[in-house]
């Protein structure tokens, strides 16, 4: 994509985080397309602000900065900003308007909640894990070394980006700032703050510097607004592919300025935690997996699980493997013997990619043999090893997506005398790399489009979870938080007539599109109820930052129940709309499913199911809306089936992987066990005409074995919140008011 230039003027509005209008939208509205060649500007210094683009290779911003004549000083900059690395904001912006928030009574706590009590709303260090911080430092060290080899250097700043950038701009009288396009909500807010700081400051040159926003897109498109959100249509357009840029030759850094040095891992962790006080720390809820907590809880009440101990990903224990092997690899591509993420800079990552692609060829190099061992350990499903090994490097921008794509396709051509077969690639590693890169690019384009135009009823924000892009929305500024969780095959748009109505009654409403659904990313991983429960946990902790009323429909209700059961301090109450799951009066055995490799049969079943859903979606949905079939309109049908197509190559990348999970779903954890573990207030809203459930029998079991549960029966089907939204909204608002009294 062409470079995007942004001119800042003194007449622009202030874009602080507490501004009532979305700073992201103001920023994007002023973008204009500029030439992809040299930027015409006087030879004032240029700052290249690195964030998630820690490389010199295939870096359009760096290439443009050095391309102008006469040559200007170029200052590479990296800022350790807590808001980017750790999401350490004290309060979300809406709470700045709520001085009485701290006086709210704490939610009722019971059982496990007493052990995991949290102080919600205080500073918390989330975002990058310790592993990612270590990989970040490796990447920065390599970038700094590469820049020094050209008599340049990487300037290191610590603190808020707007302060660091403004100080540097004033010191060197910079006229240009090059920075990569971002889609994450919190990072876009940081960019907006930098923009605001510059536009409201005075400069000796008279004008603030020009910000040039760039991207290294795999596809050559002109305007993200014009991109189709249908993957089928997108493929039909056959956009040209961009080729990666060679690393530019940099001018020597002949400016007397303190460049700074990289911190150690412990120093960085200390810096990120500086704003925390001992009494304001969160108890680390995210430190233990859902499976571990569940197994421990069941063992304490003498309930057998019938599950052998295994890693959370269903793979082998890499720590045990390497402890047993006792090998130490010279020039290893990994931070430790037990790690599975490629570390270092572009050169190491390219070498690792070459080793990965040549997995079937064998090698005598010890470092390549080590990587091949890691491939076998992380291949929990076909192609899954690529994202495990290279995902962090791609997230940090150590290597670009289009460089990986180019190198992979070139390897395929070399293997086949310059020929690319229309029937598929010649090795599974080539297939895995190409599929992963094209999938990542597709969901990044969807995320980018959602930031420049509103599709649906509510503005979409992007949150990155474990490297994957998740869509969510937030409506309302004050009041109790409510989190809406959709069912299988749906998205946050399924709450189209609930979000605004509940927010209008004095609530802050959050709705999320779960990983694997809607326009959230669909990575090649093993999906399970426990995975999604951990996603909800992290979303509440990292994004909402206070306990929520958990509202879930269908499988979303079951996931909410698991979340409330395992981390009860995160839920003010539990509201289930025709939830999945069952009541088991006397349980002494709960078989927890293993998260292992899926069979070829489930893969075939998934593809057949995709074809069936495509052809019958409208009719099936009308059966789920028995009292108001007119609610099954085109937007609903399009949203439900957008991820499937009659051509198996053109549905959303990863859709078949998610559908496969249907055949391995484990709903064996009884709802009554989950309710007891939660210990809080629970409302069941049941559409009695649900074709998927024997509603009368289900309600009878609830009344007999779950005495503390409140039940409301409605004349509706499987999705009462969308079939009769007014009735459900009234019930929810009344419940939230009563439980908060």
UniProtKB/TrEMBL annotation:
Gene3D superfamilies xrefs: 1.25.40.80, alpha/beta hydrolase, HUPs
SUPFAM superfamilies per the UniProt record, alphabetical: alpha/beta-Hydrolases, Cryptochrome/photolyase, N-terminal domain
Record-annotated Photolyase/cryptochrome alpha/beta domain positions: 44-219
PANTHER family in alphabetical order: DNA PHOTOLYASE
Protein name from the UniProt record: Photolyase/cryptochrome alpha/beta domain-containing protein
Species for this entry: Oryza sativa subsp. indica
């Amino acid at each position: 994509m062409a470079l995007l230039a942004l001119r800042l003027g003194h007449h622009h509005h202030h874009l602080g985080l507490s501004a009532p209008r979305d700073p992201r939208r103001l920023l994007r509205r002023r973008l204009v397309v500029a030439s992809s060649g040299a930027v015409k500007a006087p030879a004032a210094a240029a700052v290249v602000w690195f964030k998630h683009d820690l490389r010199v290779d295939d870096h359009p911003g760096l290439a443009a900065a050095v391309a102008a004549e006469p040559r200007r000083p170029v200052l590479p900059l990296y800022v350790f900003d807590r808001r980017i690395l750790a999401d350490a904001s004290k309060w979300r912006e809406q709470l700045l308007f709520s001085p009485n928030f701290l006086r709210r009574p704490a939610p009722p706590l019971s059982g496990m909640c007493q052990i995991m009590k949290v102080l919600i709303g205080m500073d918390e260090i989330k975002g990058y894990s310790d592993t990612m911080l270590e990989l970040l430092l490796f990447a920065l060290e390599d970038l700094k070394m590469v820049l020094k080899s050209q008599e340049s250097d990487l300037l290191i700043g610590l603190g808020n980006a707007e302060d660091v950038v403004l100080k540097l701009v004033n010191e060197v009288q910079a006229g240009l700032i090059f920075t990569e396009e971002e889609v994450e909500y919190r990072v876009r807010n940081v960019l907006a703050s930098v923009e605001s700081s510059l536009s409201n400051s005075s400069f000796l040159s008279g004008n603030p510097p020009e910000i040039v926003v760039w991207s290294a897109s795999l596809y050559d498109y002109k305007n993200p607004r014009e991109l189709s959100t249908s993957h089928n249509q997108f493929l039909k357009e056959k956009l040209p592919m961009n080729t990666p840029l060679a690393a530019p030759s940099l001018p020597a850094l002949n400016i007397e300025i303190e460049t700074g040095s990289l911190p150690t891992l412990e120093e960085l962790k200390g810096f990120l935690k500086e704003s925390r006080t001992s009494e304001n720390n969160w108890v680390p809820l995210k430190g233990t997996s859902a499976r571990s907590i569940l197994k421990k809880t069941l063992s304490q009440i003498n309930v057998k699980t019938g599950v052998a101990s295994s890693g959370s990903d269903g793979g082998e224990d890499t720590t045990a493997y390497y402890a047993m092997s006792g090998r130490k690899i010279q020039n290893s591509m990994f931070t430790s013997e037990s790690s599975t993420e490629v570390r270092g800079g572009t050169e190491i990552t390219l070498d690792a990619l070459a080793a990965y692609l040549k997995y079937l060829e064998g090698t005598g190099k010890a470092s390549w043999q080590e990587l091949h061992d890691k491939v076998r350990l992380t291949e929990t499903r076909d192609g899954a090893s690529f994202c495990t090994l290279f995902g962090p490097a791609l997230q940090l921008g150590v290597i670009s997506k289009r460089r990986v794509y180019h190198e992979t396709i070139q390897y395929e051509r070399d293997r086949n005398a310059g020929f690319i077969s229309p029937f598929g690639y010649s090795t599974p590693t080539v297939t895995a790399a190409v599929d992963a890169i094209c999938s990542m690019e597709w969901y990044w384009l969807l995320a980018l489009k959602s930031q420049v135009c509103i599709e649906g009823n509510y503005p979409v924000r992007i949150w990155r979870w474990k490297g994957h892009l998740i869509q969510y929305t937030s409506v309302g500024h004050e009041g109790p938080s409510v989190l809406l969780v959709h069912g299988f095959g749906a998205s946050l748009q399924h709450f189209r007539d609930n979000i605004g109505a509940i927010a209008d009654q004095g609530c802050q409403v959050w709705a999320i599109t779960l990983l694997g659904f809607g326009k959230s990313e669909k990575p090649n991983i093993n999906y399970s109820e426990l995975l999604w429960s951990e996603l909800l946990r992290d979303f509440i902790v990292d994004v909402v930052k206070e306990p929520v009323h958990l509202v879930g429909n269908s499988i979303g209700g079951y996931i909410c129940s698991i979340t409330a059961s395992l981390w009860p301090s995160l839920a003010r109450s539990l509201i289930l709309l025709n939830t999945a799951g069952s009541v088991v009066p006397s349980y002494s055995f709960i078989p927890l499913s293993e998260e292992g490799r899926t069979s070829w049969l489930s893969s075939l079943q998934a593809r057949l199911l995709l074809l069936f859903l495509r052809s019958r979606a409208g009719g099936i949905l009308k059966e789920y809306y028995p009292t108001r079939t007119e609610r099954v309109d085109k937007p609903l049908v399009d949203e439900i089936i957008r991820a499937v197509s009659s051509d198996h190559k053109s549905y959303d990348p990863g859709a078949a992987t998610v559908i496969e999970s249907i055949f391995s779903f484990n709903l064996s954890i009884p709802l009554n066990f989950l309710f007891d573990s939660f210990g809080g207030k629970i409302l069941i809203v049941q559409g009695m005409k649900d074709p998927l459930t024997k509603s009368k029998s289900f309600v009878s079991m609830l009344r007999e074995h779950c005495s503390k549960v409140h039940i409301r029966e409605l004349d509706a089907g499987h999705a009462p919140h969308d079939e009769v939204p007014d009735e459900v909204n009234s019930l929810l608002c009344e419940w939230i008011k009563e439980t908060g009294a």
